[in-house]
Amino acid sequence: MTEPQIVFIGAGNMARALISGMRQQGIAGPNIQVHAPSNLHRGALAEEFGVRSCPAQAEKLPENSVVIYAAKPKQMPAVLKEWRDSLRSASALFVSVAAGISSAQITTLLGEETPVVRAMPNTPAQIGAGATSLFATATVSANQCDTVQQIFAGVGKVFWLHDEALMDTATALAGSGPAYVLLFLEALEDAAVLQGLDRVTARALALQTVLGTAQMAAANSASPSELRHQVTSPGGTTAAGLAVWEEQLRPLAQRALAAAAERGRILSQLLKTTA
Ligand SMILES: NC(=O)C1=CN([C@@H]2O[C@H](COP(=O)(O)OP(=O)(O)OC[C@H]3O[C@@H](n4cnc5c(N)ncnc54)[C@H](O)[C@@H]3O)[C@@H](O)[C@H]2O)C=CC1
Ligand SMILES: O=C(O)[C@@H]1CCC=N1
């Protein structure tokens, strides 16, 4: 398969994470172009990763392009108005990482015939450890699905969803998830510092515990619950700590994912009012 030209619209945090992962995966810098209004971020990407830096305006796309929309959800109508003709004349595959915005909204902006994939990656993609959920519309060919699979599998694990409504859940869980884990790390570190441990040691212990546990869980066929029981001696320290977590953690996880998924739906509704 000829290498596709990968065109990013947007040069922010998510574009950077994906580009970093793609470059490590061996995609050549000149095969990636980045469009954004300010040269600050795209210039930095060009310097660091050898990608092509372009102004925000649309340009003629080569055949076989994959265009990844990585600007903010609310900017989509204005941005796509400009890109619509180039996308259509190159029959480009359009991939949106925008939270909340549905494929129906995208095809309303680009035309029914445009092949659209929704992708919800996360920032660990920058080190090839991402988790990306994908949803393809009916107009996406099997070859195009393979191309998208190849791109995102290069920056982590890929999960195809067949019910688009669940993209909001995937966003709440994995798109936003790194921030929850990082908050958890901060909270563990702060609690240990409160008990007198120095900050450097507290951070390193918290980090290695989360990292080691995630790696152990990934390498093990036992469920998280079974592995947890292996740590928990009856009447021991873990049981004492877990009793406190159990009071709040599950309802909190439900509320946090519900709030994040609901925000995705609201981002979608806000777009309808401005489209
Ligand atoms: N940050 C994250 O962890 C994740 C973000 N996303 C999605 O990725 C998208 C981008 O999010 P971030 O990178 O966090 O935001 P960001 O604010 O870091 O980046 C947005 C980028 O869009 C660019 N932009 C603004 N107007 C533009 C235009 N007219 N044409 C082209 N580019 C333009 C900005 O210059 C900036 O580079 C959002 O739709 C978000 O929902 C999805 C998954 C995870
Ligand atoms: O916070 C956001 O809206 C984006 C989508 C998932 C992660 N960041």
Automatic annotation (TrEMBL):
Alphabetized GO MF terms: pyrroline-5-carboxylate reductase activity
Keywords: Amino-acid biosynthesis, Cytoplasm, NADP, Oxidoreductase, Proline biosynthesis
EC number per UniProt: 1.5.1.2
Subcellular location: Cytoplasm
Any single Pfam family the record assigns to this protein: P5CR_dimer
Record domain Pyrroline-5-carboxylate reductase dimerisation: where: 164-265
Highest taxon in the source lineage: Bacteria
UniProt pathway annotation: Amino-acid biosynthesis; L-proline biosynthesis; L-proline from L-glutamate 5-semialdehyde: step 1/1
Entry's family note: Belongs to the pyrroline-5-carboxylate reductase family.
Function: Catalyzes the reduction of 1-pyrroline-5-carboxylate (PCA) to L-proline.
UniProt name for this protein: Pyrroline-5-carboxylate reductase
